[in-house]
Every structure is written in structure tokens, then in C-alpha cells.
Amino acid sequence: MYVGLDIGTTSIKVIVAEDVKGQLNVIGYGNVRSKGLSRGVIVDIDQVVGAMKEAIKDAEEKVDVSIDEVIVGIPANMLQIEQCRGMITLSDNNNRSREITEDDVRAVVQAAMTQSLPPERAVIDVVPDEFIIDDYSVTDPREMQGMRLEMKGVLYTGSATIIHNIRKSVEKAGVRINEIVVAPIASAQVALSEDERNFGSILIDLGSGQTTAAVIHDHKLKYTYVDQEGGNYITRDISVVLNTSPANAERLKTTYGYALASMAETEESFSVQVVGQQEPEMITEEYLAQIIEARLRQIFGKIYQALDGINALSMPGGIVLTGGGADIWGIKELAEEIFGVRVKIYRPEEMGLRTPTFTQVIGLIEYGVRQSEINHLVRSVVHNTSYRPNIKSEPVDDSNQELVHYQEEPEVDYIASPADEEFQAIDDDNLAKKGIRDWKFFKWFSELFK
């Protein structure tokens, strides 16, 4: 049994699944409103723990099992990606080679992780590219013989505070962490095809608290960009502009919202309960769409600048949108207009979970299931957890697994954008270009948050 835990800004999701002969079957889930999070980052551990316990209990009751450990995702905030390398000597005093054990693998991983990190950073994950025994590259060195063992790989580091708070919250919720996975890596496991991960694609996760763009190429996470604007910002825009409650704004967004004003009906209107007024006001679909489009243009515009700066938009896989914010009519067409590449939306296929908001939590389980035993062993060193070989429910046909042997080293060390603690008002230019009604009101609204 595998359990994925997605600690999101709006909701905390728990998915329980079984892997039977290479087929991942979701058998239950819990989904509760988040507390104690802001822009994907924990700001109140006790509140998060309470929501986490509720989600876990919900999932346990649906499948009638006890959840003891989870695979948890960590956001790409302040993520750094760099190469790492470790080497150990295997020969004895008589200069003879010997068989490589799991302890040797642990030792070479520790050697690769040993480097000077500032106190504010911590290791999230190590992904081996290759092991080298006496200058010969191998995928899994266990039970082979040699005099020297090396490991080349990719080292992911992040904010020590973010990592500590996640670990502490999960621990206080009464479960153990089996693995910690960088969120875009998990999402890419299900949202991108084998060819898209190989030839190169961009995965944009429109979360409620932030939007993350990840560049995947040669089955590796090469780059991340985090914009501290997400679906909640669209909701807030609607709430402020229409002077209605956040709950009403969210309902309007999900029920009547369009990402492109040109796709909305100019004659179709609906009532909006305005704060301080007894009678509701009538608003057109087009007007609501103009509000939504302005924010999305700002988000996509920033991402475009970041991706264009590293020439990522030339990759053949195009862009895949996912996350709760991707579930807005017309967002595919808007993204294609802004980025100038092929865009598609990924929705999970599991019954009852067919919305983009469940992509990451399903990806966490899929990623854990599809990893090779040697990768599980490496991660047990990183996360200081027990290593258990052959953990699948039943023997799995290897042909159904997507195990990757990395050959090429990353060309550049990539760094995710830092978190922005300020609410970002919509740029005036984005609004002016769309000719939004009541421009003076929008101008006043933008000035509020500068």
C-alpha cells in the first residue's frame, strides 16, 4: 500500500493506492480544507497538523486501514539543483577487490551529499545518474565486484525551515515519512508522457497559493520558476473588484469563469451579492472573464519571461497545464496565445479524481511506485528511513515500469525564484490592454497593493 500526502495552500489531500502487477489502483482518499498555510508554505504547524489528521482519518475510514507512513511532496520554493559526486575505496589492505554491499552504496551516497551547505539550506533528494565501478558505468552496483565505487548524480536542496516544518507537521500528525519528493518531479511522473519527459517539456502547476513552472528534459528536472500568484489571487481579484465575499468570488470563478474574455458571452449575466447592499447586482460573463484574464496574463507573462530567458520554449514537448487553477474554461487557448507553443491540460484518469487539483498527490504515489530499488536505497540514506526491498504488493512486470538510467549531467545549476511575501497587484498595462470597464475603479484597486 502506498499513501501520498499533498500539503496544499487550499486543501490537504491524502491518496491511498495499491500497486498490483504494475497497475496503480486508488482505493481511497481524503481531502480537507487547509489551515496554517500561505502560498504553499507552512506558517502554523499546529493548524496544519489538525487538518492533516482530518485528511488522514478521512482516507483511513474510506479504505478501513491504518495509515502509518506517507510519501510527501515539497514545494519548489527556493529549490536549488546541482551536480554531486561521491567516491569510496573498496579494496582491502592487500589491494584486492571485493563485492559491493548495500552499506557501500550508503557510504558513497553520504560522500556525494557531503559538501558545504549554508545553515539555512538542507538536502531534499539525491537522484543518481550513474554508479561507476573501476571506471565502468553501471545502473545498480550491488553484488558486483570492484576496488573503487563512485556515484554521480543530481542534488536537490531547499530551505531548511520549509523542510523542517513539513517533517515536524507529519510527525505530529502521527505518521512517518517514507519519502520526500520535489513536487514538480512527482507531478511530471503522471502529467507528462515518457516522450515528453525525455525530449523536453514544461509543466506549469497552477496552484491556489502559487504557480510553479518546471522544465523537464532527459527525464530530469532542469529548472523551476515559482510565481507567488495562484488561483487564490484570481479569487481575491474577483472579490475586491465586485465587492463580494471570497466564498462568492470562488463560486463565480468556478461556475461562470473564463480565462479569455473573447470566449465569454457578452449577453449572459448572473447576480452577485454585493457587500453592503441588499439587492444583488447583475454582472456579465465577459466582465468576470476580463478580471480573470488580467491576472492570468500577469502570471503567464512572468513565466514566459523566465522560460524564454533559458530558451525552454523551444523544446518539442510544449507546455502541460495542471493544478486546480488549470480548471478554467479557455485557459489552454490563453496559454497558447501567450507562450506561442502547443499547450494541453492534464487531468488524472482515476475515477472521482478527474480534476487537475489531484495531479500532484497521485504523482507522489506513482513516483514512489515506479522507482527502482537502488533509487529507494539512495533515498533511504537521504531521508534517514529504513530501506525495504521488494515493497510492491505483488511482483511487478518490469516492462511496465519507467525506470531511467541517467547518462548526461545537467548543463547548468538552476535555481528557483525566491518567494515574494507581498501581494502583487495586477499590472496596469495588463488591464489597460483589455479595456476593462470601470478603469478608474481598477486603477484604485491596483494602487491599494503597491
TrEMBL record:
What functional role does this protein have? Cell division protein that is involved in the assembly of the Z ring. May serve as a membrane anchor for the Z ring.
CDD domains xrefs: ASKHA_NBD_FtsA
Record localization: Cell membrane
Keyword Membrane in the entry? The reply is yes
Q: Where does the record place the SHS2 domain?
A: 2-191
Gene assigned in the entry: ftsA
- A single cellular component GO annotation: cell division site
**Is Cell membrane tagged as a keyword?**
yes
Q: What name does UniProt use for this protein? A: Cell division protein FtsA
Instruction: State how it assembles.
Output: Self-interacts. Interacts with FtsZ.
Family statement: Belongs to the FtsA/MreB family.
Topology in the lipid bilayer: Peripheral membrane protein
Q: Which UniProt keywords apply?
A: Cell cycle, Cell division, Cell membrane, Membrane
Which species expresses this protein natively?
Ligilactobacillus equi DPC 6820
| Listed GO biological process terms | FtsZ-dependent cytokinesis
The superkingdom listed in its UniProt entry is Bacteria
